[in-house]
């Protein structure tokens, strides 16, 4: 079967394309403004990607078109699919029918930490010999790819609450029917499709309704909105973790690279790994508990953490030049921004300055939903620089007065950052997009000034 994927370079749709290819289908696709890592993953797998949405790419007509949720009526390819009555489906529905239906699905949902937690859980199952299939919203460095199909009964998936498609406005995750479900946290986000937090809570409750009574819910006890989800009705055993839960972590090092796992006050294990950040320690605990539900002993899961390599674009060291290190991170919500800054600060210790660089690119950021809390999220940095594009829709400079240097021009912002930098600085670049390649441009200009030493975590 020839499957054509519209919006193929999104992390989810790219993963669907990789799974369809692994299932034996001929796969092509199209998108605009592609950027790594998905563009590189698709090229590596030999999947042909058309730039743009010229309907000519549908000649001859594919057997099925899978339409990403970023596309809507008026898109030339969408209109051609409808006019020519080419069979079409959404990515989540196709995935549920063709890949997940006969498998034990372990899903990770929440506002923050989904990609990292999904990657940790997948690696634990891999090290335990369960050979899981997976679909992750990023490139897990242990696997070098975002999606994989195996003959294992286990499949791990990042469960996103964003809507499914222009013709199906339910959250993606209601299609997945997990047996094991992690609920990491829940805050207001995706303001372009959800009017308020209550609307997201409703979608999370719809997800809970699909988990069987023989399944398991791994729920962050420190997230009040998740309790509201449970209060709407719950038919599955719950294991609470984090503050207030039966399962908790105790840091054995300030950066979180060594920690203890405690159940109701009793020590159950001690872990050591190469990932920084208190939030990542809790991600690891959730993954350990989910793997335990699938039959992986706690000590086996803890041992697997030692070799976990992280996720691309999650506090990823892109390189060092002239004594300055540049990190790349996907953080785009104030909570995640503050947590990522804290993680790098803990990793740095007392040496050097932390320079934060932010592109407020998400739809929620562009709408100004977080403008009241953004300044506080940046205060853990020694200096902050923020890009404010012309279409941002709110006064970034006024909101961040006294907190960050703001510029509407990438080149100007780049120069402002370079003028500030000195040896020993750690630069943390945060965006859920390509950010005009600012990471590489910073390193290239620093290299021109001095000798370069590159490295990658």
UniProtKB/TrEMBL annotation:
Keywords: ATP-binding, Cell cycle, Cell division, Cell shape, Cell wall biogenesis/degradation, Ligase, Magnesium, Nucleotide-binding, Peptidoglycan synthesis. It comes from Acidithiobacillus thiooxidans ATCC 19377. Reutilizes the intact tripeptide L-alanyl-gamma-D-glutamyl-meso-diaminopimelate by linking it to UDP-N-acetylmuramate. It comes from the Bacteria. GO terms for biological process: cell division; cell wall organization; peptidoglycan biosynthetic process; peptidoglycan turnover; regulation of cell shape. Transmembrane segments: none annotated. GO terms for molecular function: ATP binding; UDP-N-acetylmuramate-L-alanyl-gamma-D-glutamyl-meso-2,6-diaminoheptanedioate ligase activity. This is UDP-N-acetylmuramate--L-alanyl-gamma-D-glutamyl-meso-2,6-diaminoheptandioate ligase. Gene3D superfamilies: Mur ligase, C-terminal domain, Mur-like, catalytic domain, NAD(P)-binding Rossmann-like Domain. Pfam families: Mur_ligase, Mur_ligase_C, Mur_ligase_M. Belongs to the MurCDEF family. Mpl subfamily. Pathway: Cell wall biogenesis; peptidoglycan recycling. Residues 2-97 form the Mur ligase N-terminal catalytic domain. Its EC number is 6.3.2.45.
């Amino acid at each position: 079967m020839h499957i054509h994927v519209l919006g193929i370079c999104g992390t989810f749709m790219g993963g669907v394309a990789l799974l369809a290819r692994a299932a034996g289908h001929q796969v092509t696709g199209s998108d605009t403004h592609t950027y790594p890592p998905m563009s590189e993953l698709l090229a590596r797998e030999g999947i042909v990607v058309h730039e743009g949405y010229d309907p000519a790419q549908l000649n001859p007509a594919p057997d099925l078109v899978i339409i990403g949720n970023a596309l809507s009526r008026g898109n030339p390819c969408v209109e051609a699919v409808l006019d020519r009555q080419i069979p079409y489906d959404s990515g989540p529905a196709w995935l549920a029918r063709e890949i997940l239906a006969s498998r034990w699905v372990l899903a990770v949902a929440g506002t923050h930490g989904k990609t990292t937690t999904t990657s940790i859980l997948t690696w634990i199952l891999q090290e335990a010999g369960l050979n899981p299939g997976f679909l992750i919203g990023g490139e897990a460095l242990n696997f070098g790819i975002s999606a994989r199909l195996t003959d294992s009964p286990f499949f791990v998936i990042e469960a996103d609450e964003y809507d499914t498609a222009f013709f199906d406005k339910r959250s993606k995750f209601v299609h997945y029917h997990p047996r094991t479900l992690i609920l990491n946290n829940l805050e207001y986000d995706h303001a372009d499709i959800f009017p308020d937090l209550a609307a997201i809570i409703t979608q999370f409750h719809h997800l809970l309704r699909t988990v069987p009574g023989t399944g398991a819910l791994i729920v962050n006890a420190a997230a009040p909105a998740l309790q509201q989800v449970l209060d709407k009705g719950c038919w599955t055993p719950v294991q609470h973790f984090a503050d207030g839960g039966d399962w908790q972590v105790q840091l054995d090092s300030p950066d979180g690279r060594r920690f203890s796992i405690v159940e109701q006050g009793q020590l159950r294990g001690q872990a050591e790994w190469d990932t920084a950040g208190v939030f990542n320690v809790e991600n690891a605990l959730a993954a350990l508990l989910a793997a335990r539900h699938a039959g992986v002993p706690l000590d086996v899961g803890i041992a697997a953490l030692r070799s976990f390599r992280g996720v691309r674009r999650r506090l990823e060291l892109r390189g060092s030049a002239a004594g300055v290190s540049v990190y790349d991170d996907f953080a785009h919500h104030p909570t995640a921004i503050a947590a990522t800054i804290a993680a790098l600060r803990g990793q740095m210790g007392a040496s050097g300055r932390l320079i934060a660089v932010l592109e407020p690119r998400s739809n929620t950021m562009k709408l100004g939903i977080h403008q009241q809390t953004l300044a506080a999220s940046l205060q853990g940095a020694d200096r902050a620089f923020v890009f404010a594009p012309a279409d941002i829709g709110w006064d970034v400079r006024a909101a961040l007065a006294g907190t960050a240097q703001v510029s509407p021009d990438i080149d100007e912002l780049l120069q402002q950052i370079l003028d500030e930098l000195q040896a020993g600085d750690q630069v943390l670049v945060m965006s859920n997009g390509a950010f005009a390649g600012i990471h590489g441009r910073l390193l290239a200009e620093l290299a021109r000034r001095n000798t370069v030493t590159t490295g990658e975590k």
